[in-house]
Write a structure and sequence with these properties.
By secondary structure, this protein is α+β, with helices and mostly antiparallel strands. It contains 15 helices and 23 strands.
Length: about 575
C-alpha cells in the first residue's frame, strides 16, 4: 500500500514551508498583509492544503474585504486618529494587521466563496498589557452529556452561530490604548465606506485607528468575548457551572447551554429555546439558529439527527468526506489497523514532505476520534507517538486508518432515552509497545444505554512489571478523569451514587479494594495509586470484575478482528 505523498506541487510545498514558519494556527493560514505582496493571491481550504483562486476575480476579493471592514464600522470597533496625535510612547507600539483569505467550498446550497478576516497583529503587543488572556471552550465530555440529557429528557436542540462575536466585546477602559495601522489597500477601502475619515489619512497613505473593541488577533479577545457573553446570559438567569465554565444552566430548566467561542449548542423544551434565541438575536441581530425539530443540525463539524425512535445520532460524514477529498483517499478497509500495528521499523524513515502529510492527515482523523469515532482511537494513539519522526510504514498505517474511515463514514454515535447512570470500563495491555516496553491503556465512560461520554487510548507513562501493576496505574489515572464527570452530572441535578467500573484483572480489583498488598509482586507499586481505595471506601466508585471477552475497553488497548471487533464497536458507539 502506497502512502499519499503528493498533494501539492513542489512550488506550493516551498510556499507552504515558508508559511509554516509564521506559526499558522486554527485550520487556515494567517497571512501577513504586506503591501504589494505576492501572498495576496494565496488561498487555503479547510485543511491547509494549497488552493488556487479558482473562478474568483478582483471584484470577489474586494467584496469580501468590504464585508469585513464594514463590520468594524457598523459595530464601532475602532475610531480613526491623526498619526501626530498618537503619544510618542504609543507610536512605538502601533500594531499592523493580518489578512486571512479562506476559500469556502461549494455546497449543494451555496456557491463557492471567499471569506476575508482582517485580524490585529496581537503578537506585536506587550503580553503584560492584559495578562489574563486565557479563554476556555466547552469540554467535549460536556457536549456529550448535553446530548445524553436531551435524549433522556426528550429535549429539543438548537445550534447557533454568532458572526463577528469578538467585535461585540469592549476593551477595558483601564487598559492602555491599542493603536493599529491599516495598509494602503484597506485604508482606501475604509475611506470609501466612511468618507468622513479621509481627513485622518496619513501622508504614507495608511489609516491609523484606536481600537475600542476586541478585534480578532488580540490575545485577550477570546476572554473578553466570554465575559461579554456571561454578562448577557445572566440577564436570562443562565450561569456558568462550576465544573465547566462554558456550560450554562438555568435552575428552572433541565437543558444546558454549551459555548464553544461563538458556536452555541442549547438543549431545552421548545418554548425555552425560542425565548433564548429571541433574546440573543435582540443583542446580536446576525445570529443564525438551526432547530433540530426542523431537521439535522451541525455543530463543530458534527451532524446531529433525530431518529424515528427519538434517539439522537451524531456523525461526521461530511467532515470525513472533505478529509477524503483533500488527502485523495479512495481505498477502503474493514478494520482501523493491521496485526502489525505496534511493530516498529526504523530502517526507512519518511521524507520531510511525507512526514508533513502524515501529521496533517493524522490530526484531521484525530479530530473525528475525539468527537464521534472511538473505534479509531487505538490506531491514532499509536501513530501519535510517531509524529516527530514517522517511518514509511507508519505513513502506510495512517493511510490504512484513513481508508477504514472512508469505508465507515456513515457510522456515528447514538444517544438513546435511558436513565442517566454513569459507568466506566478500563483496561491495560502489558508491554504492548516493543520499542519501550510500555503498556497501552484505555478507558470509556458512558451512561447505561444512553451513550458514550468520554474515551481514550494512550501509551502508559511508565513501564509496568506486571499486568496487575499496569491495570492499577490505568485505573488510578483514569479515575482522575472520571470524577469530574460524576461531579458535573451531580451539579446539573442528575445525581450519581456509586459509579461502577469494569475491570478484567482480579488481582487489581483486590488491591484496589484492600489497599497495598504485602506480596513481593505488589509491594513495589507506588502508594500514590492506592488513593482509589479511599474512593471505594467512600462509595464514590466500585470496581467489578468483567470477563475479558466482555469488557469493551479491551478494544482501546489491543487489535481485535472479526465479530468481536464489530460487537465492541457497536457497544462503544451505542449503535447495536
Amino acid at each position: 500500500m502506497a502512502f499519499l505523498c503528493t498533494l501539492v506541487t513542489p512550488e506550493e510545498e516551498e510556499m507552504s514551508n515558508f508559511l509554516d514558519n509564521r506559526e499558522i494556527h486554527e485550520l487556515c493560514f494567517l497571512l501577513d498583509n504586506v503591501e504589494e505582496t505576492e501572498l495576496d493571491n494565496i488561498y487555503y481550504n479547510t485543511f491547509n492544503t494549497m488552493q488556487s483562486p479558482m473562478e474568483f476575480n478582483e471584484i470577489d476579493i474586494e467584496n469580501a474585504d468590504i464585508k469585513e471592514l464594514s463590520n468594524f464600522i457598523e459595530l464601532k470597533t475602532m475610531e480613526p486618529v491623526y498619526f501626530e496625535d498618537i503619544p510618542e510612547h504609543s507610536k512605538r507600539k502601533i500594531i499592523a494587521t493580518h489578512v486571512l483569505r479562506r476559500v469556502k467550498e461549494k455546497t449543494a446550497q451555496k456557491e463557492a466563496s471567499i471569506k476575508t478576516r482582517i485580524a490585529a497583529r496581537g503578537d506585536q503587543l506587550d503580553p503584560n498589557i492584559y495578562p489574563n488572556s486565557s479563554s476556555s471552550t466547552v469540554n467535549k465530555a460536556s457536549i456529550k452529556i448535553s446530548l445524553i440529557v436531551a435524549a433522556a429528557e426528550d429535549l429539543d436542540l438548537v445550534v447557533t452561530d454568532i458572526p463577528t462575536a469578538y467585535l461585540h466585546a469592549h476593551l477595558p477602559q483601564t487598559m492602555e490604548f491599542i493603536y493599529m495601522k491599516f495598509n494602503k489597500k484597506n485604508s482606501a477601502t475604509l475611506i470609501k465606506l466612511k468618507p468622513e475619515w479621509e481627513k485622518f489619512m496619513n501622508a504614507d497613505g495608511c489609516l491609523y485607528v484606536k481600537l475600542l473593541k476586541a478585534h480578532y488577533g488580540l490575545a485577550m479577545a477570546g476572554m473578553l468575548w466570554y465575559k461579554e457573553l456571561v454578562s448577557k446570559l445572566a440577564m436570562i438567569e443562565y450561569y456558568p457551572t462550576k465544573n465547566d465554565i462554558c456550560v450554562f444552566t438555568n435552575c428552572n430548566n433541565k437543558g444546558q447551554l454549551n459555548v464553544h467561542v461563538d458556536d452555541l449548542l442549547i438543549s431545552g423544551i421548545d418554548n425555552v429555546l425560542q425565548h433564548i434565541i429571541l433574546f440573543l438575536q435582540s443583542l446580536y441581530p446576525t445570529l443564525k439558529a438551526q432547530f433540530l425539530k426542523d431537521g439535522p443540525v451541525e455543530y463543530l463539524a458534527s451532524q446531529i439527527t433525530r431518529r424515528s425512535d427519538n434517539s439522537l445520532f451524531v456523525d461526521q460524514s461530511k467532515y470525513g468526506a472533505k478529509v477524503m477529498k483533500t488527502f485523495k483517499i479512495t481505498g477502503k478497509q474493514n478494520y482501523p489497523y493491521q496485526k502489525d500495528l505496534f511493530d516498529e521499523d526504523f530502517s526507512n524513515l519518511a521524507t520531510p514532505w511525507q512526514a508533513k502529510i502524515f501529521s496533517k492527515l493524522l490530526m484531521s482523523i484525530n479530530y473525528a476520534v475525539i468527537e464521534t469515532r472511538p473505534d479509531m482511537a487505538l490506531t491514532i494513539s499509536f501513530l501519535s507517538t510517531k509524529m516527530q519522526e514517522p517511518t514509511v510504514r507508519d505513513c502506510e498505517k495512517c493511510t490504512h486508518l484513513a481508508e477504514y474511515w472512508n469505508n465507515t463514514l456513515h457510522l456515528g454515535i447514538r444517544y438513546k432515552k435511558a436513565p442517566i447512570i454513569l459507568r466506566a470500563s478500563m483496561d491495560a495491555s502489558l508491554g504492548s509497545h516493543p520499542g519501550n516496553g510500555r503498556s497501552q491503556n484505555g478507558f470509556i465512560f458512558y451512561t447505561v444505554g444512553g451513550g458514550p461520554i468520554q474515551w481514550g487510548s494512550h501509551l502508559a507513562k511508565q513501564v509496568s512489571t506486571s499486568s496487575t501493576m499496569s491495570e492499577l496505574i490505568n485505573l488510578s489515572d483514569n479515575c482522575k478523569l472520571l470524577l469530574p464527570i460524576r461531579d458535573f452530572l451531580n451539579e446539573i441535578n442528575f445525581i450519581q451514587t456509586t459509579v461502577i467500573i469494569e475491570q478484567d484483572n482480579k488481582s487489581t480489583i483486590s488491591l484496589a479494594i484492600n489497599g497495598r498488598g504485602n506480596s513481593s509482586k505488589s509491594r513495589h507499586i507506588n502508594i500514590n495509586h492506592f488513593w482509589i481505595k479511599e474512593l471505594i471506601d467512600n462509595k464514590i466508585i466500585d470496581v467489578y470484575h468483567t470477563n475479558t471477552k466482555q469488557i469493551v475497553s479491551d478494544s482501546f488497548t489491543k487489535t481485535i478482528f472479526g465479530s468481536q471487533f464489530v460487537k465492541f464497536r457497536s457497544m462503544i458507539m451505542n449503535i447495536e
